[in-house]
Amino acid sequence: MTSHGVLSVALYCALLLAVVKPLGGYMARVYQGEARAARRVLGPLERGIYRVLRVDPDERMSWQTYARAALLFDVAGLVVVYVLQRVQGWLPGNPAGLGAVLPHSAFNTAVSFATNTNWQGYGGETTMSSLTQMVGLTVQNFVSAATGMAVLVALVRGFARRASSDELADAHLGSFWVDLVRSTLYILLPLSIVVALLLVSQGVVQTFGANASAALVEATTDVDGHRVTEQVIALGPAASQVAIKQLGTNGGGFFAVNSAHPFENPTPLSSFVELFAILIIPASLPYTFGKLLGDTRQGWALLAAMLVVFVPLLALTVSQEQAGSPALASLPVDQAASALQAGGNMEGKEVRFGIAGSALWATATTAASNGSVNSMHDSYTPLGGLAPMWLMQLGEVVFGGAGSGLYGMLAFAIVAVFVAGLMVGRTPEYLGKKIEAFEMKMAALVILIPPALVLVGTAVACATEAGRRGPSNASAHGFSEILYAFSSAGNNNGSAFAGLAADTPFYDTALAVCMWGARFWLIVPVLAIAGSLAKKKTVPRTAGTLPTHTPLFVAMLVATVVVVGALTFIPALALGPIVEHLLAHGASSARGGA
C-alpha cells in the first residue's frame, strides 16, 4: 500500500469511530422518546403523521402483530413501485418520454427497493422517469432502511425488557409505526438533507430541468444507421437520492454506473462524503444497542467484532489492487507490462478516486448492505474481488444494513453463547436472558437462509442455459460473476461484478426471489426471537455467567462468523476467485520462467 492509501484509510476509520458515540447516543434517545431538541422541532410533524394515518403511538404490539405490520407495509411499497414503473409513460415528470418498464424488470426493481437491496438491472437515466425515481425509488430508500432499523429496535426491546411475573404475559415490542416514523423523521431525513447539501456543493446535479445536450466534435451513426451530431446528457434530482441511498445502505444509483458517474460523484471530496455516509449508521447502531440496554460495553464489543473482520479484508483488497493484475505480468512485451503495473490495477477505476479510494469503497459497500460502487468490481484482481464477495457471504453482519446488519450479528452472538454453554455444560445466557431451543432454531434460520438462497440460486444458474448466457466471461471468472450476483441478492447488498447480463427474465426473476427471501424470511424469525425473549425473566448474573463484553467473547463471536462463512462458501469460492488467482499466477510464473 502507498502512504497516501494508508493515510486515507486511516483517516476514514478514525472519523468513522469518532461519530459512533454521538450519533449512536442520539439514535438511542430518539427511540426512547428523549431527543428533546429534535422533538421540539419535528414533534408536531410526527404527531400530525400519526393523526393522518390513524396510528395510536401508545399501541403495544406483540411480535406477530409487529411482523404483520412490517411485512404488509413493505409489500404495499413493492406494489406502488411496480405500478409506477409500468405506467410512468402516462405520468408527469417524464421529460425524456420514457415508456413503461418491462414486467420482469419492473418486478425485479420493485422487490429490490422494497427489500433495501437496490439491485440495478436497469439504467436509471435511460429507464426511469424523474417521478419514478423520486416517488418510487427514493421513498423506498427511506422506508426500507427505516423498516430494518425498526426491527432491530424491537429485538433490542426483547433483550432489554425487565418485567415482573405479572407483566411477562403482556410482552410487547412497541409500535412498528412509531419506530418507522421516528427512524425516518428524526434520523434518516435530517442526515440526508446535510449530505445532499454537501453533494450539491461538490457538483452533484439536483434539477428538474430538461436533459442537456452537447455537439459532437465528429458526427457518428447509431445502431439504426441514423446520423448523430449531438450527445444527450441526462440530468435530474440526483443529489437527494444519492444522499439517502448511502445513508440508508440502499445503494441504487440515479445513473446506470452509480457513483462512478461524474454527475453523481464528481470529486474526491464527494466520494469521501458518500463513502462516509455508507457506514455511519451501521457503525453507530451497536452503541445505540448498548445505550438501550443500559450497558454500552455490549455495543462496543459488537463493534469491535465487526472491525476485526472488516480491517483485514480491507487491507487484502487494497494491497491486491495496489500490487496490480497478474495477467499483465504475462504480456509478451515486458517493458510495457512493467509500466502498466507501476500504478497498480487501475482497470475499471476512476482516476479521480484512485486505487485506495476505490478499494475502500468496494470493501465498505459490501461490508454494509449498500451495494453502490465507484469502480467496477468485475475488473478487480481475483483476491481483490474475493474480499468484497466474502463480506457479503458472511451474512452482511460486518456493519451490514441499517438495522439488519446488527440484528444479523446478534443472531451470531446467540449461536456463540450457545457454543460457549456447550463447552462448560451450562445453559447459555445472553444479556440476562436464557437462550433455549426456540431462540436457537430462529437464529439458525437467520444465519442459514441467505447461504441457501445464494448457493441454490448459483447452482440453478450454472445448470440452465438461460443462466449460462448471462456471464460475459468464460471459465472461473464467469462463475464468479454468477456467484457474486446471487451473493449480492441473497444478502440484500445490490452490488454486481458488472460483467453479468442480468436484465433478462431468468435473472430478474431468480434474483428477485433471492432478495425477497433474504429480507422477509429473516425479519420474521428475528421478531420471533424478540417476542420470546420479551417473555423471559431476567437471569441473575453469577460467577458462571459468560461475560459478553470482553475480548474473549469478541474472539468467539468473530470465530463463529468466520467459521460459518468459511464452511459454507470456501468450496464455491475455490471454483471462482481462488482458482482464477492460481491460474493467473501460474501463467505469470510460466512467462517469467520462459
Structural write-up:
By secondary structure, this protein is mostly helical. 65% of the residues lie in helices and 4% in strands. The protein contains 20 helices and 4 strands. It has helices at 3-31, 36-53, 63-87, 103-114, 124-127, 130-160, 165-168, 176-201, 238-247, 268-293, 296-323, 334-341, 354-367, 382-393, 404-424, 437-463, 465-468, 475-489, 505-534, 551-593; strands at 212-221, 227-233, 429-430, 433-434. The strands form 2 sheets. A two-stranded antiparallel sheet has the order 1-2. Helix 4 packs parallel to helix 19 (505-534) and helix 9 (238-247) packs across helix 10 (268-293). The longest helix has 43 residues, at 551-593. It is globular, with a radius of gyration of 24 Å. The mean pLDDT is 90.
Q: In order across it, which strands form the biggest sheet?
A: 1-2
How many alpha or pi helices? Answer: 20
As residue ranges, the low-confidence spans are none
Secondary structure category: mainly alpha
**How is the biggest beta sheet arranged?**
2 strands, antiparallel
- Helix percentage range: 55-70%
The proportion of residues in beta strands is under 5%
Strand and helix order: HHHHHHHHEEHHHHHHHEEHHHHH
Mean pLDDT: 90
Distance between the termini: 29 Å
User: Radius of gyration, Cα only, in angstroms?
Assistant: 24 Å
Shape: globular
Instruction: Please report the total strand number as a whole number.
Output: 4
